[in-house]
Amino acid sequence: MDREEEHILVCLSSSPSNEKIIRAAARMAEAYHCRFTALFIETSDFEKMSEEDKSRLQFNTRLAGNLGARIETISGEDVALQISEYARLSFVTKIVVGRSNDRKKIFLQRATLADKVASQSPRLEIFIIPDASEDKYNIKKYRPKGAKFFFVSDVIVSLAIFIAAILISNLFQYLGFSESNIITVFILAVLIIAVITHNIIYCLVCSVLGVLVFNFLYIEPKFTMSAYESGYPVTFLIMFISAFITGTLAGGIRRQEKQFARSGYRTAILLETTRLIQKKENKDDIIDVMINQLMKMLNRPIFFYGIEDIENGLGEPILYKPDSVEINKSEYTDEYEKSVARWVLENKKQAGASTNVHSGAKCLYMSVRSNDRIFCIIGIPMKEDKLTPFEHDLIVSILGECALALAKNLFAGQKEEAAMRAQREELRANLLRSISHDLRTPLTSISGNAGILLNNAGTLSEEKHRKLYMDIYDDSMWLINLVENLLTVTGFEDGSMNIHMEAELIEEVITEALRHVSRRSREHHLEFQQTDGLLLARMNPRLIIQVIINLVDNAIKYTPAGSTISIRAKKENGMVVVEVADNGDGIADAEKEKVFEMFYTSGNSRGDSRRGTGLGLGLCKLIISAHKGTISVYDNQPQGAVFCFTLKAEEVSINE
Fold this sequence. Notes:
Layout: E1 7-11, H1 18-32, E2 35-42, H2 51-66, E3 70-75, H3 79-89, E4 94-99, H4 113-120, E5 125-130, H5 152-174, H6 179-196, H7 200-218, H8 232-279, H9 283-298, E6 302-309, E7 313-314, E8 318-320, H10 335-347, E9 351-352, E10 363-370, E11 373-381, H11 389-456, H12 462-493, E12 502-505, H13 506-514, E13 525-530, E14 536-539, H14 541-557, E15 564-572, E16 575-582, H15 589-592, H16 616-626, E17 631-635, E18 641-650
Parallel strand pairs: 1-2, 1-4, 2-3, 4-5, 13-15
Antiparallel strand pairs: 6-7, 6-8, 6-11, 9-10, 10-11, 12-14, 14-18, 15-16, 16-18, 17-18
Helix pairs in contact: 3-4, 5-6, 5-7, 6-7, 6-8, 7-8, 8-9, 8-11, 9-11, 11-12, 13-14, 14-16
């Protein structure tokens, strides 16, 4: 098998020798350059583990993570079976375990973990790390403070079930059922008690009582503790063992159900976190989801440190806490706590409580980071209960999910910004390319006509003088209009355009615009029609004048001399509608969707359309969109085209 396909697995435990095993597995993973996984199997005995063992387990977990292992946590009672199944599903090729070198006893020898794993996964390579302390170490179980073994409710329930079993057994005896049927009733009672009660002691007591009551009430001679049949002691023994085993199994199932329910709840939170984060696009919303999910899972306060910038580092801590939790914020936000958070930012590692770095801190500080970029730091108060390995694993998963979402959000923002920069650069390039040739034509005309006037003024007729002056004027007005369009377009694109709007009479704006249209308009018939009375519209008058000038100039350019150009204004549905109609050749349907694109020029050229930069109609769309209006083009009847734009109407007061 190639090295790239190797996958090394090591198991996490609270054993003192586990550190040695982890380091050996890490060296193997480094030598093979392969995947490295550290697996913790949470059994029902985990809650009975001493604080010393829990601390050692947390140390081993952090050590594995620092050595490059991926931490995984699963639940189950059969450790060897869980290891084998995980190895099979995760394509593990090598397993590193520990085993003692001490000589085993000849009698009552039990199989080691390595032997069990080897028997269930014969195809895996198993590396055994010898250690003399491995078999000498035992998990010290303890009873937490305030824990109860006896509950009045459990005693009452057990007595009620046991009495019910006696009554049912009496009924069975009255009906003539055999003693084997009566035995099953007591076994069933023990099974039910084991499922309902909180401790196995009730199952054990009821197993003994079941044997005694069965012997006392239903075996001849009745009401004595003796039996005529020689085989009854064996029956009693089998009954006791059967009741005890079934009760123990039922109790184990109940403990596993609690364990699976707890694991399922935490896993559901992780899945819910993933689903909620995927719906968020804003950085602050993603962080809010992360913090709320952490509080929901841990029922602890969370301190949030935002990243201001590289120079200033962390921002001030913000406290988020469940409503049911009271906490003194100042106790967890002194200078020492902040310095630990800054250390996490600088070193990109977790620190604080329950770690080996700044272990005197009151919070565990972890970073939300993707690769080398840190988005924020969170602090989890650890004054009371420590985190379990599974909780720690889920926290890392939630922080990782949040980091991926924030990285994606950052990348999307950078991509959008890059696209905008590229668009602006493209606009500049198009502007330069578009006007470089078009500026040369009018400038050449102006300089040529001016040169003729300077050199031949005395020999030219009055009519020739007037024509040259008109050409110079037309070309200069065309240049002024081009410059106005360029300034407006660049203002919209770089965001520097400040649009101040006010209510204006549309008739005055149109009249002012017609005063600045091309002098070639004299070759056309211009008319203005207003169907309603005074029409007020909310607008920036200078920009709307520019729109009307561009639309009228466009109609002049693409219609033959003598054509009629009509400007109409009316009010419809709370909007002022302005139409510029001509009776020229019209616009093809295929071009109607393109005419408002920047730098697009129609193939239908007339007159001096060689000067068309394609800015006019594209600029009109920008201006009208900024006014929250619409602009469109449709066919005029019987021929020609109509350009129509809308503005928000204003009511005319009686004092105006």
